[in-house]
Write a structure and sequence with these properties.
This protein has about 110 residues and is an all-alpha fold. About 70% of the residues lie in helices and about 0% in strands. It contains 4 helices and no strands. It is elongated.
Amino acid sequence: MKRKSHTDKNYKFTKKKHSGRGIFALIFSFAPLVMFFYAVAVSFLKEGQASETIGCVGIASLLAALLTLKVSISEARKENVIKKVPVTGAVMSVLMLAGWISVYVIGWVGL
């Protein structure tokens, strides 16, 4: 049995490319994060009495997270595409969806 030395490299050349829509979804998945921090900061500064505009920012962020999740999943299912970028976008979107849903549930319950 041959032991591998440090000079043995396992290279795998492939024709897979980064998906343009997957990159868009990853970059756009940071938009809900920015909106989340903005809404939380404004709500904190106004001591929980923020205007309806912050609610609209929250809904827009929720929709943006859903859109990026949909695009990320559709791009991750394609063949000959490097999966890391769309999967990262999907994970970011799921985390933002969970964050916004928890904010709305806390708001409805009144904790």
